[in-house]
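User: Structure tokens for this complex, please. No commentary.
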Amino acid sequence: MRALRLFLALALALGPTLVRAQPAASLVEIRATLDLAISEFEGPQQGQSLLRFDEVISRLEAERRQETLSPEGIDLLVKAYEYRARVQMNLGNTERAADSFRALIALAPQHNLDAASISPKVVDFFKGIKAQMIGYVTVQSAPQGATVSLNGKVLSVTDFFPLEVIAGDYTLEITKNGYRQESRPVTVTAGETLSLQFDLVRTSASGFVITEPTDVEILIDGESKGSTSGVLDPALAAIAAARGLDPAKSSSRMEIPNLPAGSHTIEFKKACYETLRMGLDIPEPQDYELPPIKLEPSVGTIVLTSDPPGGQIFIDGDAQGVAPRTLRSVCAGTRRVEVRHAAGRFVQDVDLKARSTVELAAQIRPTLAFLGVIADGPGGQRVLPSMVTRLTRLAPLTIRAMNFLKADNAVVERTLAAEHMKLADLLPPQKPDPALLRRVFEKLAAALEVQGFLVGRIPEEQLARSATLLVYAAGSVVPDSASVVVEDDASYQTFFASFDKKVPLRTPWSGLVTIDTLLQEGPVVLRVVPDSPAAKAGFAKGHVITEAAGGKIARTSELLAAIAAVEPGKPLSLTVNTGEGPKSVELPLEEAPREIPVAGSGALANKISMDLRQTIEGYPGSPNAAFARLNLGLIALSLHDYAGAHDAFIKAKNELPSAPGLSRGTAAFYAGAALEHLGYSKEAVEEYTQASQDAGATLLSQDGPRVQDIAKRRIGALSGGR
Amino acid sequence: MKSGCFLAAALLLVALERPAGAQPPPRSDDQAKRLLDDGRIDLANGRAKQGLDALETIVSGFPNSSWADDALLEIGRYAEEVDKDADKARDLYDQIVKKYPQSDSAPLAYLRMGRLAFATAATQAALDDALANFQRVIRLYPESPAIPEALVASARVFRRAGRFDSATDAARRAVLDHPASSVAPEAQFELGLSLTMAGEPLLGLEEFQRVRTNYPDSPAAVRALNATTALFRIYGGDRPLFLKDPAYTSPGGEVLKDVRSLAVTPDGLTWIASNKTKSAVSFDPSFALKMGLSADDPQTLAVSPRGEIVFAARLAVKVGSRDVFSYATPSNKPGIMEPLDRIGAATILVSGDALVSDLRRKRVVRFKGSAFVSTFPDSSEREVIKLLTTPRGDAVMLRKDDKSVEVYDDSGRLVVKIGPRGPGFEWKKPVDVAIDSFSNLYVADEDQGIFMFSPKGALMTAFGSSDVRKTGAIAVDLSGALLVYDDRAEALVRFK
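Assistant:
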């Protein structure tokens, strides 16, 4: 019973394949039978082979009658007839042998026996039968190259020597492009040669052309007539050279047949060359020699830089080196320029004009891969297609700061299968091991060449109306999430818009620390950071700032807004009351790093993580990369990914200098905080101790609270066993 | 509660009790959830009895459901916030942490128990009890959303206990680790306060400003502006600078005659106690008249730790607008109580006890409600004409008899004594004392203006003698400005 079940299973699995393979298997079987018959023919019991040859012939003839016999089958049939005739001859049954040979000759009139291996007696017998059945046909035409058919079956191309044809009545046709077709009845008599001569009547013209370069497509009145190819006949080299063509780069002489009389437009087209368009008059059906055609290159230059640099350049998918780079001889037209970087990619379609230069500053953007939507119940399954459609339509339309692509399902499934996981296993409410989750997302990111993921989940509800969208950065283990109404575009767009929130790593900085009071009409300077722009401009404690950028200000928040709005390199105009009357000051600002305020900024922590990773991978070893690493740790900390945070802080600590402001001490302090969350108090104290030794280090910004004081308090708290 | 095994047990019981052929009963979890929703709606709509009945049904009928802990928490909240029954609330919260320690209500219950303990914590032991509850939240429920609040609450306990470094550290953790939490503005404010009390007022100023910058729409931002104003006035220059506010226009009328005392409550109302009108009346910052309290022979005004006005008159003390207390102390005859008929001043301590100055016997007496507790800090004679409670819960006494200011902690231990003379000052006739949010003391001397002292009793500055002809009652407003009653001009002067 078990074997039967296995058989049925196999039959079910292989059924369709077996059915499809039946004709091929039949021919193989027949060939096997024929080979067996031939080996019997060669052996001591030759007579036994006759039955097998009969079987082969019978089966092949059956197929021939149904017109399903392949050329290979015909070859087998010819072979079977020949061997059967030889067996019959050897058995002394010449009558039957003659029938077999006749059937063979009818099938293949040009067939001959191999006189070297077959008895002369048999060969002569065959020739005798053939002489009774075969006549000869030879045809010549002017011009040559016409196709000759007998009863619709192609015989040969003129001019040809006499060919063997079964004697009988035929309709002979002769055809050639551009010439009138001729047709006439003919009788082929056995043993005689029918010789025919045709003067063909021209009905259309032909054009002949040489091009430089080769592989130029030729269109007549918009219809393609093929492309030039080959190499130029040396005899035509002089003609080509006289027209300014390089014979070594020119094509062979190409015929453009079937040109009807009248006026035409002829176009010569080749990618990266200027298309040449000209008029062509055909007054009468004859050959026309077109002037040799030389196409001018149609190329431009793309000067490409990328931020970050080092991205791989692709033009229309072809690798073109590494940015920054000047690409000369880029084919004119709409070109897809792509720059791929570990930190993301840049894709733009560029309309490049011939002989023009396009300068392109490729801003590498992280790429978000849409992994799909998980529905937890039948209600969700019903609305799932609608949600997928909305997501894939709205995300690329709304998100500007990222590339968006639909992930290749096969790649996703393969990557997850390698970890014995399904997509649903990764998402809340499941709580996979963070290290596993991190590894899976990093593998997926590498496989898909993306930096982040978008996935939807529809909870199990009777009438599923809302769903959750989750965003993970590669390497993150905690998503940003938002609830969307499945059928409401606006809810998706609101979420997608948050991807475009900009949170720069560096902002304009003055070094002024001001406070609001009810005592003064403007922010009061509480402190000036040493060596800062404000210190150099002479600001001091107690100064009151009453105007910024030409407007009155009453609060510190207004001053900060004015500072943030200053363009790089430009000063901020301030009016300051120093106690000796108002004074105007042009305060030059610096760009200073800061801790990115994720909370309340409306930005997505995972999106910021992707941007930060871009800086880290795009500018390795730079100060910005180190500050980005510090912020990456802070985001992980805010997402309660303490292991990820610790890793980032330790790297930042090694990269940041010991200096005033956000620096090595800052990273050490936060590494301690992460360790504390992980339950490593002793190690945390060691980090805090390191932090406390960095006297100038601050938190939050260059003018933030001093790390030293805060770290000492933490040490005190931990050491006190509070 | 989200305990699977309890739920399974409940379902099993329900299944065993079901008669054969009956419809399957609704799941106990579903029933409990419905009752919880109904109970919450009833409470929110003033149907307290129905609401509490529904919640009690969950507790008694579905003790193993996922919602029993939530029901207990709701009942506890009601007891605490509406019935003001702290003991009952504490008992309910205690049930949660004991019966449902793994539930999401448990950290909230600890938090509330801590708050209840802290609200009246006058002793170190009581503070430790409050702190222990907050620390349990932090230690036992590291993923709980109650963590930021527990950190802020811990910081407040530490600050009250004088452990300013620990207070600063706890508040800093709340600020750094939970910047998006709903209590983040309060955490930042607490950080400013803790740093200031730790002797780092300039760092405190920066943190108060961060409240304004980071959380401009929060209620804490308004308090932070008052704090920056007050601190900058004190620490913005070489020494505190109080200048007469020329823009300030004193209210007028009978209420400014024979003014006995001034006070500013946390809601921004300025109270004036006048013997002429036999009342204490309040004004908002635009001088619109608000609440008034009448009393024969008004004495002093103080502000309780809960922010209520404490109005002491000769025969009774009013706390807020409702509670009136009269007092009696043991006489020389055993079992005989003598009423206090010459009350000179009163204040309310953190524990809720009242300190009342008995001018007839020249003693300060401690009462719980109206019940005599003890003399305070001892039975020595003191002619105290003003009593205040500091932000830390200490008692401030202005003594007429020896022209001094004494500060005692809740246990009666002397914390600091100022006057009648010291480096840079000698009082002639101190008539009033006031205290600001940072525990700085201001003493009004009738002829010499105002003396300002640090919490440790060091003279910081003196001012006002040239602007006030006869200094009377004083009060510190929310922004640290000083209101001074000029007894001769019968007007208020503001030093900003």
